[in-house]
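Exam revision sheet. Question 4 asks you to relate a sequence to its structure. Input first:
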Amino acid sequence: MTSFDPGQQSPATELEEAENQLKIEIEEQWLKLNKLQAKLNQEKKIGKINNPECTMSQISEAKEKRLQAEIDANIKTSPSLLSTNSEVIEAVLLSDLQTCVEQLKQTLSVVKTQRRELVEETERERRLLKQHKEVKASIEEKIEVEQKIPEKSHDSELKNWEEMKKRWIEKQKNLMKNLGQFAKQHFPMPNIPDSKRKRHLSGKTVDDDDELFQLFEILEVLMNKSTGEDKHDPYVQVTSNFWPPYVELLLRCGIARRHPEDSNRIALTSYHM
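Answer key, structure tokens:
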């Protein structure tokens, strides 16, 4: 058997020579194994296996006995290395060890990446859990406060709304009153002599029995019509009670508008604040 002397060669050269030496020894062991197999084939087989009438069960039993014998032999004998050269074995083991180290480094990198992702996922889950706990605590606090509030507080709140409604109604009455005073002061009723009581004004005849509306009253009629139950038809028929100059004033100032199909009907202009 050839010997292996590494000397002062490089690690790559040593590994290559070690692999070549190991291949030579493997080939030698393979040749020995082939010779042994050929020798066994020449010998007569165990039992009645050569008999064509041998059943499958008998063949299985023979194979089982042979395997059991091989197991017993392997247990009694200690395993032997293919190569007896310690330097060859050391070089091969070093190569295997380096391969294992590289594989373990790659595995470690993957594990670190997975660990970092798991840590980030854990932090996100913790933040979500904290937010959910805060929301839960807030909801529970609100529920607890609502449960502690007696029914009287709800009744008092309803009373507050009713009082507020009354105040707004009172304010509206005051506004309407001020509007009426302003209209009476700056837009008084026209003075029509009795001799000229009957005359035509813009196609309207004013009789003795007719009473002219003040400007405030015309505005009130228009507002009631636009805010009443019949909101879809806010137009009012212009009668002889509507003094034509006041109607024209409202139209020119943009406070009122005529019906697009009937000029004798007017409505309050919509204001959008």
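Marking note for examiners. The longest helix spans residues 86-148.
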